[in-house]
Every structure is written in C-alpha cells, then in structure tokens.
Amino acid sequence: MKIAYICLFSLLFVQKIMPQNELGQLKNYLAEFKYNEVISILEEKKKDAGLSAEEYFLLGLAHQNLYDYESASAAYDSASAGDPMNAIYLLSLGKTMVLNDKPEEASYTFNKIFAFDPSNKQAKIEIAKLYYDRKKYNDAIIFYSLLIEEDPLNSRFIRTLAYSYSRIDSVDKAQSLFSKAIVLNPKDYFAAFHSAKLFYDTGMYDTAKTILENSMKYNPMHAGLNKLLAETYFKIGNYDGAVLHYNNAVVGGDSTASVYQKLGFTYYIIANSASSATEEIVKLKYSEALAALDKSFRLDNSNPLTTFYIGVINKQLGNAEEAERFLTKTLGLIYPDYLPDVYAQLASIYDSRNNFASAIKSYKKAYDLNPAQKNYLFYLASIYDRYYSDRIVPLLYYKKYLVESNEDDLVIKNYALDRINKLTEENHFRKQ
After folding, report:
1. Residue 428: predicted pLDDT
2. How far apart, in Å, are the Cα atoms of 56 and each of 87, 116, 169?
3. Residues near 82 by Cβ (< 8 Å), separated by ≥ 6?
4. Helices within 134-256 (DSSP H only)
5. How confident is the model over 182-201, as pLDDT tens digits?
6. Within 13 Å of residue 62, how many CA atoms lie on the same side as its CB?
7. Which H or E element spans position 17?
C-alpha cells in the first residue's frame, strides 16, 4: 500500500510539471510497479541528453521503491540541484538520507526548506520525527510545539511531545500533555501507558490504575497495559487482580521470564495470605506459583529470586529433594565461584594501605564463602600477628591453619611453626 501511494503521488506530481505526452510510458510503468523499466529508460536518456530535474525525481522514486536508497538519494540530489527551491525534492532527499542513516545531512536538507518556505508543515513533521527518533528530545520539543500550534487537536503530535518532555524529566508538562492526548483519543494506548507509568513511578498508584483501567476498555489484551496494571494492583495489594492481568499480559504476547516470575510471586503471596482458605486451595495456589516460576526459570535460569522461591514452594509442597536442589542452586547464583577471590583481592589492597580492620573483614568473608581455601587463615594470622597487640588471636589462627591445611610449602609451614613457638613464648611471659 505504501509503495502504491508513493507511485500515485509521484504520478500526480509529474502530471503537473511535465507534459502528458512526455510521461506516457513512464507513468504506466510506475503505476504497474515496473521500476526497473523506469530506471532503464531514464539511465539511457541520461547518457544521451541528460535529465531534467523532474526526470531525476522520477528516477529517485523508482530507486526508492526498490529499496536502493543510495541511488535514490543521488537522483533526488540531482533533482534538487536542478530546482533548488522545490520542497518535494528536498523532502524526498531528506527522507532517503534518514534511511541511509545520515541524520545530520537529513537535518540540514529539511532545514533548507525553511529558507524559502518557513511554514512547510511536512518539513516540520520530518525534522521533528528525525530528532525524536534520534532521542534529541529538546530539539524534537521545538518542532512538535510548532506543529501543535498549527494543529492543536492532533493527538499524535501531542502524545509525542508529551513523551519528549518525559524523557527530559519535565514530568508535570508531560502529564498535562498526555492527559490532553487521551481526551482527544481515548483509544491511544501509548499515551495511556506512559501517562500511567509516570504516576506509577512517583507512587501515585490509584491514579495510574484509573488511567490504565480506562484504556483497557479499548485495549483489553494489550500486553504492556496489562503488565503495568498487574504491577499497579500488586502495589496496592489487589493480588487477584494482579494475577488476572499478568495472565492477560502473557496472552497478549509478553511471555518473558520477568512476567512469569512476577506471576509466580503473586500466586505465592496469595497462598501465604489465604488464612481462611482450605488446605486444598492453598496447595493449588502454591502449585500455580510453582508452574509460573518454572516457566520463568526455563526462560532465565540465572535469576536467584526465581530459584529461591521455587525451592521454598517445593519445601511447602513437601518436595524436599527439589527444594534442596533449587536452594543450593540459589546459593551458587548469589555467591559465584569467583566471589571469594574478589574479597581476597580487596583484603590484600586494604592490607597494603594499612586498613587492617577492613582487610581482616574481607579475608573472613572470603573464608566464609570458600572454607576450603586455608590460605585465608594464614593471611588472617599474619595480619593479626603484625598489627594487633592481642597475641592469642594470631596464635589461634596459625594453629588452625596448620591443623586444617595440607601445606606442602616448607617455607610457609616452618614460618607458621616458628610464629606459633614465639607467640606461645610471648604469651607465657605476659602471664608471669
């Protein structure tokens, strides 16, 4: 449909600028989507006699409809060079520059139109969209504001301006504009979602709920609206409502690990808070929670909250083996294998900077996470030995190190034995 529209537009335009008898076959080819024939005819003519600006424009349209945006851009550029004050040529050139990912050149091209046609609405639309798509929201605001001055009831311009304000943290201005867009078009789920999200993010859950519920009348299965409404219900303690809308979000197309995880959490809360429910109902809710969390785990097996609650629910359901498996996995996710090494490295840095309390704390944390690494005991003994007046503590750590480690390095072993003997002697004389 888009291609057909471009062709129809181009033919109507060409009829105005070229005699009908010179268009003939080209018109027919464009109407029949025979873009290669148009290109062949015009390229041949270009070799012999050159092309007029209008013919370069036709050549650009043919290339553009074949998705050859580089060639289209070159043809439009030639058309514009032949007729530099033709806004249609410049608009076409700017659009292909956008498609060629040349935003700066596109912006320059669109702005050239304002030099001779400052009120050109299409140029304002294109440059506003360019800035918006490139996340240059301050610039987008300027042009969408101009467009709204001309067309104050255009809900799409208003909602886009609202979103641009929200991205630069002008929340009040964004909310006012979103509200206006929703009044103009109550079916606009984009405006409703982002308006509700602003209220949700500031803790105004009842207002967010009202906006979402109104929009759901027109968009009952929209995944984003359902998910946000579910999270809003969760925040205000309406867990049954949250379950309903999380499930609707899944049906609407959001079957992500995050949605299944939140659905599982919600079922779990319902099961735990159902004090007056029968044992069968509680068990059913736990089973529903487990089913949702299992789906989340299959999509993302690296989330420790998911594995933790799978373990807890299995424990509640009497599945001890599965509970142990998932709770053990949770520990592995929370404390990855390299974490003790991180604490040990931090301890070494603290030690080198004479921050002995932090060094000891970090070595103890490393040892708690990996008690198989007995060298941590030696490091603790060494720090206590060097910097603490209480000689009992390093003595105990040296002894613990020698008893528990299988140290083959005689230098370290002999050093520890030597320090044990000297510390024992020191403590003996102190007692006297």
Report:
1. 65
2. 15, 22, 45
3. 52, 53, 56
4. 137-150, 155-167, 171-184, 189-201, 205-216, 223-235, 239-251
5. 999 999 999 999 999 999 99
6. 24
7. helix 2-17
Q: Which helix (H) or strand (E) holds 8?
A: helix 2-17
Burial 173-182 (b: 16+ CB within 10 A, else e): bbbebbebbb
Range picked from 19-28, 310-319, 382-391 for highest mean pLDDT: 310-319
> Is residue 11 over pLDDT 70?
no
Q: Which of 6-20, 155-169, 355-369 has the highest mean pLDDT?
A: 155-169
Taking alpha carbons only, the member of 131, 123, 96, 100 closest to residue 6 is 96
In degrees to the nearest 10, what's the CA dihedral of 138, 139, 142, 146?
Answer: -140
C-beta of residue 366 within 8 angstroms of C-beta of residue 350:
no
Is the backbone of residue 273 left (phi > 0), alpha (psi -120 to 50) or beta? alpha
Phi and psi angles of residue 377, each rounded to the nearest 5 degrees, phi first: -65, -40
SS3 call for 44: helix
| DSSP-H helix ranges across 252-303 | 257-273, 279-299
d(Cα 233, Cα 240) in Å, to the nearest integer? 8
User: What is the identity of the amino acid at 356?
Assistant: F
Nearest-angstrom CA–CA distance, 314 and 321: 8
- Interior/surface letters 372-388, b for 16+ CB within 10 angstroms, e for the rest: eebebbbbbbbbbbeee
Residue with the two structure tokens 């602003």: 198
Is 143:150 a contact under the CB 8 Å cutoff?
Answer: no
Report the chain's mean pLDDT, rounded to a whole number.
91
Which domains are assigned to the chain?
Answer: 1-100 (1.25.40.10), 255-334 (1.25.40.10), 339-431 (1.25.40.10)
- Which uninterrupted H or E stretch holds 3? helix 2-17
Q: Please state, in angstroms and rounded to a whole number, the distance separating the CA atoms of residues 45 and 60.
A: 15
